[in-house]
Target: diguanylate cyclase
Amino acid sequence: MKFEKIKNEKSSIRIRLRKISIINSAVILLLCWLLLTSTSLLFIKRYEKRNLELIAATLSNSLTAATVFEDSYDAHKKIAMLGNEGMFATAKLVTDDQTVLVNWQDQQQQDGWYENFLREWIYARPLSVNINHAENVVGTLTLAGTVKGATDFIRYSVMILSSGMLCVLIVAFMLSAFLHRGILQTLRNITSSIHYVISSGDFSLRIPESPTKEFQLFSDDLNSLLAEMQSLQASLLRDNRSLAAKALEDPLTGLANRAAFVTQLTRLLDGQFAHERFVLLFLDGDRFKSINDNWGHAAGDEVLKAIGSRLLALAYKQDMVARLGGDEFAMLITSRATEKQLLQLTEEIREAIAQKIMIAEGTPITTSVTIGYAWSQHGDTVQSILERADMHMYKNKGISKVRV
Model:
């Protein structure tokens, strides 16, 4: 499970860039290494063959007298002198009548598979040159080249070349890491900005400028998108606030609706131990049905609007006026703390509602409301205080039926 988890983890772009740089540098350096190595090998092959040809030509000239007189001692001495200096591996001197004067071989040379392979690749076969005297061939000198110098040269060349390539690879890796720093920093700025926007929901953040053209274009597009999303977010918040306000507002009168009224009443009851007591007023229209029947629903709407505005004018800022539905209104009064103040308010309400209301046709209409109220008590619930105010209102109407 742990291996699968590690295997499924995605590598970062930093690691990918490093891999790309290393692979790219390694491939280029490998190709350079192969090119330089092959060039060096071809050069050493040509050099060794040419060197053996020069040694054979020089030695054949010095062996002319010894070959003519068949002086094997002198010939062996001259061949051994050069052979011991590592000029060749074996030498064979044969006269024109096939008499072997010298058959010299380097006794210190111990050839392995690598040396044998290298010798076969460089020389292919021993080099034979004629020994001439008075334009006649008096003998043949056969030399087998040595690869001791070539072996050391190739070994040290490969070591130095490989070490140099490794150093270049390390320098290339460090240089690429330094050059990638700007790209990685730009990507970090972009990703951190996006993560901040996602986690915080704040679309006011803008991605900083980048010196790279492609990243700058990408940043500009993201900034444009963030600006558009910020605008949409602000518009959405405005719409939500507007919808929330409308959801708690009576569309006809602009007063609080039943839901807002119940919410405020619940809040006051929950905090009644920390605040002074309040009073709930229930107001019911007395002639609303006849107004609708005689002058139409438009006139009834005008009457409801007038009642709502007059109630709102009598309420203080901390009070609440709501339309519960139809011709029923309610008020939550927290600005009057005594019964005397309450009675004065109810009288002001009756006088304000009793004033004539001009409908669209220019006809004056008079109406009135019946008021019931209930003071808050400890332990009240929304249902209990509503019932008390409702009962008081019906009592004032002179109706014995209690509405639940």
